[in-house]
Amino acid sequence: MLNIKGKVAAITGASSGIGEATARLLAQHGAHVVLGARRTERLEVLTSEIRSKGGSADYLQLDVTQREQMEAFIKYTEKRFGRVDVIVNNAGVMPLSKLEALKVEEWDRMIDVNIRGVLHGIAAGLPIMKKQGFGQFINIASIGAYSVTPTAAVYCATKYAVRAISEGLRMEVGGNIRVTLVSPGVTESELADSISDEEARQGMKEYRRISISPDAIARSIVYAMEQPTDVDVNEIIVRPTASPN
């Protein structure tokens, strides 16, 4: 793999799913990974497993909704390795429900994690990348960034926002800072575990009947990272072959 060995990647939402798979794959190919999530017990286990296989991994507790924590996470990465090559803004939540259910607190949580979390990652990383003259943001969206389904109005809105933010950032930074949007289709993860609405939960069980491994998304992230510095892979949509969704 080109341009992976020795790179420094900070990954949010790294305690499970896409974040965990990405951490394992990048470390396997020689990257230094710094893992952030709220569940430090999982991060500790993952870090130990990566190190036991000869990989380079560190971790920090991280709530992406707290700007100061994101600042500390990215600054730790820079101090530990001298630079920040890649920030993978992966943390996300998906408590689906119809709007008429008025689960306003869940709406707020999606906005805080899915949108503000990405913005906090950009705010923390962009000054460092501009100073060092290179870097890459990889923002994880969803196929929900391209179409809306019932019970997913707010979730899709947050992912549309991530798509818009990513495109705006790409146009503004130019130079040697790359911006990639990765939009997974139905992927095995814990996202559906946050659905408290029973109707939405049952619908999601059927929707997720056909899914792909988070390793597939990790490989797409590696693909975007390994390109030459003058190549910016802007958008990747990865779906299960057998799924129409």
Describe the structure.
The chain has seven helices and seven strands. The chain is α/β, with parallel strands linked by helices and 245 residues long.
Which characteristics define this entry?
46% helix, alpha/beta, single chain, 7-stranded parallel β-sheet, 7 helices, 245 residues
Fraction of residues in helices? 40-55%
**Strand arrangement in the largest pleated sheet:** 3-2-1-4-5-6-7
- How large, in whole angstroms, is the Cα Rg? 17 Å
- Uncertain segments are none
How would a textbook summarize the main sheet? Answer: 7 strands, parallel
Protein name: Oxidoreductase
Write the layout of secondary structure elements.
Blueprint: E1 8-12, H1 17-28, E2 32-37, H2 40-52, E3 56-61, H3 67-81, E4 86-89, H4 104-132, E5 135-140, H5 153-173, E6 177-184, H6 198-207, H7 214-226, E7 235-238
Parallel strand pairs: 1-2, 1-4, 2-3, 4-5, 5-6, 6-7
